[in-house]
Amino acid sequence: MENLMDLEQQSVLIDSEKTVLAVAMYSDKARFNILHQLTRTDFSRDAHGIIFDAIKKLNENSQTISITQLTDFLEGTKELNKIGGVDYLSDISSYYYTDEGFEDYVSIIFKNSIGRQLDQALINIKQMRETKQKSIEEIFLEAQEKILNIRTELVDDEMSRISTIVDDVVEKIAALEENGEIINGVTSGFTDIDSITNGWQKGDFIILAARPSMGKTAFALNLAVNAAEKGKGVAFFSLEMPKEQLVQRILSSNSGVDGASLRNARGLDKDKWSKITSAAQSIKKMDIVIDDSPGINVLQIQSKLRKMKRDLRIDICFIDYLQLISSISNKAESRQNEVASISRYLKKIARELKIPIICLSQLSRSVEKREEKIPLMSDLRDSGAIEQDADIIMFLYREAYYKTKEYEVSSKDDIDETDVIISKHRNGATGVVKVNFMRNFGRFIDQTKIS
Which residues form the SF4 helicase domain (predicted)? Predict the structure, then answer.
């Protein structure tokens, strides 16, 4: 019975492939979607892949698709005999009656292609294990990469008529006006930043960079909490700091109890304990997921984010920080190339999952060597490619940090004016936003909120 089922399934697949090829030959309307959504390797028979490629190339050259044209083309490439000659093209041609419901046949082809790719990946993994030429860690990373690189969803039509796009844009503007919303992305919680960015947008890759001790992690946590307080789901990957320390920072920021008191549990009177317990109850309601796996690589981030997006409704992701993400390659590449590759991959993940990704980054020591300490995009550490990949690049700069030789948290003035410098904004304006950093609590607030 099992073999019979296999034969039946194989017959359905072959008939589906022939039908899709026939539709691609005769339906101008359906041809675009078929050529856009499938590739040659999605077909189970080499002959069908060859015919698909021939149709695609004729279409790219704006040539009429017909048995005659396909025959001439395949004769020119010396592949006509490989596909079974003119008789096989005629056989495929006979499968065309209508293009109605062709999407169902495309889906059958694509799902079978996923299965074959997965089977091949498992065979390759098994072979790697048997040869024992690589460590289990190397095999695991390669296995993960092979499986994650299998495309599991049909590509949406990325080409649209402007008439359709403008209607969507106008509808969005009308909805924003009706709802009284100022921004249409995930809020930063800072009025002037939101006025420039219109909120963090889906698919954006955002870099937040600064020198050590400028407050990158504190600012990122503030952004995460601000988003969560507006009902957004937040993923926070902490490669440097354990989750308990992150939550302690959030607790200090939200309770107004200084971080030093929370760390050493000294001087906690009744009033402070009341603030701590109240803030803790508030934090419990926040939809924030923290992953503090050290040495995580970009493929693992992709895998975990996919699961979070599916199961936990994630709207925004934070990564602390870029230079700590492990390489997925064991080749002797420069760290600059590795970081460039990671940066490109994070941009790809943001686009794929349709969420903004805010990734923290270090700056090179060249900042300290200059008389003018304000950071520039050229200061981004390890890779100039970060500048190309990011949709938004922000820097934190506190002049007070450089006013003393040794920065002391216990100085009399515990509030520092901080510049949030938006140096790159692919879809909007740039500028400098001034906020206040309450150092004792690790909290950033709008300057207008200081009484």
Answer: 179-451
Rounded CA gap, 421 and 399, in Å? 13
Q: How big is the chain, counted in residues? A: 451
What are residue 62's phi and psi, to 5 degrees? 60, 35
Query: How does pLDDT run across 343-384, given as a tens digit for each residue?
Result: 888 888 898 888 999 999 888 777 777 777 788 777 776 566
- The two three-digit tokens of residue 306, written as one number: 């996919």
> What is the model's pLDDT at position 48?
93
Average pLDDT, the chain: 80
- Domain with residue 372: its CATH number is 3.40.50.300
Residues with Cβ < 8 Å from 225, sequence gap 6 or more?
A: 189, 250, 253, 254, 286, 288
0.70 surpassed by pTM: no
User: Averaged over 212-231, what is the pLDDT?
Assistant: 88
Element (DSSP H or E) covering residue 336:
helix 335-353
Containing structural domain, residue 233: 184-449
Position 404: which residue type? T
The three-state secondary structure class of 314 is coil
Task: Give yes or no: residues 224 and 262 share one domain.
Answer: yes
Residues 201, 246 share a domain: yes
- For residue 357, being part of any structural domain is answered with yes
Give yes or no for a contact between 442 and 218, defined as CB atoms under 8 angstroms apart. Answer: yes
E strand or H helix at 241: none
The pLDDT of residue 300 is above 50: yes
Q: How many CB atoms lie within 10 A of CB 59?
A: 17
Q: Which helix (H) or strand (E) holds 431?
A: strand 431-438
Indicate whether 237 and 319 sit together in one domain: yes
Contacts 24+ apart (CB under 8 A), 335-343: 335/382, 336/382, 336/383, 337/383, 339/382, 339/383, 339/385, 339/386, 340/383, 340/384, 340/385, 340/386, 342/298, 343/205, 343/383, 343/385, 343/386, 343/389, 343/390
- Assess whether pLDDT exceeds 60 at residue 392: yes
